[in-house]
Amino acid sequence: MPEIALIARAKNHAQSIAFRTPTASYTYQDLLDRSAVLASHLLGEATDLNEARVAILLPAGFNYAAAQWAIWRAGAIKVPICLSATEPEWEYSLTDSGSTTVLADETTSAKITPLCQRLGVRVIAVDKVPTSAVKKLPELTANRKAMILYTSGTTSKPKGVVTTHANIQAQIESLIKAWEWSASDRIPLFLPMHHIHGIINIQSCALWAGALIEPFSRFDQPAILERLQANAYTVFMAVPTIYVKLIQAIEAASPAERASITAAFKRLRLMISGSAALPASVHEQWTALTGQILLERYGMTEIGMAISNPYHGERRPGAVGQALPGVEIRLKSESGAIVTVENEPGEIQVRGPNVFKAYWQRPEVSAESFDDGWFRTGDMAVLETGYYRIMGRLSVDIIKSGGYKLSALEIEAVLLEHPDILECAVIGMPDDTWGEAVSAAVVLKNPANSLELTTLREWCKERLSVYKIPQRLSVVKELPRNAMGKVTKPAVRQLF
Fold it and tell me: Which of 172, 187, 202 is the last residue of a domain?
């Protein structure tokens, strides 16, 4: 394998457009050429960087993809870091990974250079690297380490997930087959590029297929809706928070604009929601507005995507579907038995070529994360008529109350049906009577209104069993979230 497959395939689409912005277009050949120049610059006098860690601090776009490919073509390991992170968070990622170089641009290099000077880390502004002769690049094998992607770290310090080129290829090929990517596809990319959703599901799948990407530095709703109405896209991927915002925008639009927007969404061949649970109510509301049935899927940094609703067939609200091609899934109960029947909950465990190898420099944690070769996700699920439904995280979303194991996600879905509630987060809080009390933090649609716990409990009695009814309530202006828009439930606990 002299060159990794993702990059080698680009030669088949050399003259096709890989990235398009309002002011420029870049072909696959441009991407190959620029990444070779940057790889040569990274190598310097070396012939192979031999899995040295190189961090990347760039927004989505041509420069990001060229930098990523350059890191790999030079034989290094890519370490994506968050554009909006604080300096201590950057320092943690750089020092924990042992990164020696940061690839940035003129804007981001100015922000991180003072830290890098203190740490002795080199900063290269990729947009300032001149075109020059290309060196002989090292030959690579699929089992070499390709990326260290840090987990969100909501309950402890972030862990570096180490994936090989073979892992990444398996993740891409599974989605290419399941979601029927082709060279004719066109997709916007506005998700963070330190997360697997943006890196693998969108950028890498699109570039593998020879498709076209329109990058945005953030979710620019007016610009994206304008491009949608211009028939610019065939595929759309977003997180649930964005779909909620789009629903609000559609409902607030004039009749003519609303008709244009919904028609544009209806023309897309595929719309996907991920990175957090999509409430069934949002799923159904989106279909009612646009005619599009969102495809929800399930994955993690450690495994890529593992489960998906089908491209052809029923896309069931509240469920994440079935195992993806090449991925094995099993459920294991708390008793240690493998679940062999439907409607019995268990921890999702995953096996396949998509699964990561280890956490960076954490051998004990890595060993604890596998059960006889199966990765332990820490997520509870149940199989219902052939489809997996996520119940929540073992440590966060499963509430043990009154002898019952309750899914916080299920209770949240019911609360979102309340006419006054815009957003909510349900957690378990220590309670002498219940063990854990079902507790809810809610954001109201109208901040001027009030919501009393007794009123909410009465409303819930018609919709939830008594042991699922919230015992505590906190009304907040905004729920704490991480960079991907996920509600950080350890932080929500502090609201009480």
Answer: 187
Q: State how many domains the chain has.
A: 2
Domain boundary among 187, 219, 235: 187
In-domain check, residue 244: no
185, 192, 196, 238, 315 from 295: Cα distances, Å: 17, 20, 17, 11, 6
Q: Does residue 327 belong to any structural domain of this protein?
A: no
240 neighbors 278 (Cβ within 8 angstroms): yes
Q: Which helix (H) or strand (E) holds 200?
A: none
What is the residue range of 489's domain?
A: 398-493
Rounded Cα–Cα distance for residues 347 and 350 (Å):
10
Q: Residue 306 domain-assigned?
A: no
- Judging by DSSP bridges, how do beta strands 387-393 and 374-384 pair with one another? antiparallel
Share of the chain above pLDDT 70, in %: 97
Tell me, yes or no, if the pTM score tops 0.70. Answer: yes
Q: What is the pLDDT of residue 277?
A: 79
Separation in Å, CA 385 to CA 93, 150, 382:
42, 35, 10
Instruction: Tell me if 451 is assigned to some domain.
Output: yes
Query: What does each C-alpha distance from 331 to 103, 301, 385, 396 come to in angstroms?
Result: 41, 19, 15, 18
CB 239 within 8 Å of CB 276:
yes
- The model's confidence at residue 154, banded by pLDDT at 50, 70 and 90, is very low
Q: Tell me how far apart the alpha carbons of residues 420 and 43 are, in angstroms, rounded to a whole number.
A: 58
CATH (domain of 174): 3.40.50.12780
What are the backbone angles phi and psi of residue 368, rounded to the nearest 5°? -70, -20
Q: What is the pLDDT of residues 390-439, one digit of tens each?
A: 988 777 788 878 667 788 888 998 899 999 999 999 999 887 667 788 99
Q: What CATH number does residue 444 fall under?
A: 3.30.300.30
- The candidate with the shortest Cα–Cα distance to 189, out of 212, 169, 172, 222, is 212
pLDDT the model gives residue 403: 64
Q: Taking the mean position of all CA atoms in its chain, how far away is CA 487?
A: 13
